[in-house]
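Slide 14.
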Amino acid sequence: MTTPLSDDDLRLELDIVARKAGLTIPADRHDAVLTSYKELKRMTALMRQPRGAAAEPSNIYSLVGSRRGGRHG
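Slide 15: predicted structure.
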């Protein structure tokens, strides 16, 4: 896992990403967007960790047999 960016570096990264996407973040919302961006990066790093087969669900479910009345259509 990479080292988390400092708040200043994260702010710079957000500004660059927003500029590349053609977005203008209003000054009064910038802190809130920055907080969300920081959380998004944290969750993305969490989801990108390798997982073994034990982390996969062991069952699949079908909704066909669980419909009310048992009728289709």
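Speaker note: The two ends are 50 Å apart (CA to CA).
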